[in-house]
Amino acid sequence: MMKDEIGINAGLIWQHINLKGECSLKTLKKELKLNDAKTNLALGWLTREGKIGSFEKEGEQIYFLIF
Fold this sequence. Notes:
The chain is of the alpha+beta class. It is 58% helix and 21% strand.
């Protein structure tokens, strides 16, 4: 997977959370039609840049934007 593709997927995830609010990992993968690897790489990118945070709720990882 190329760095550009990871960046594009990170942008898709950021936009999705920005529009819909906090989302579970399961929801992100389903609604954006990304596989595990693509989703995890993009989430790692966003986390490393300090653009998203996460917490666990009822056994699910939930992601939100950091402004």
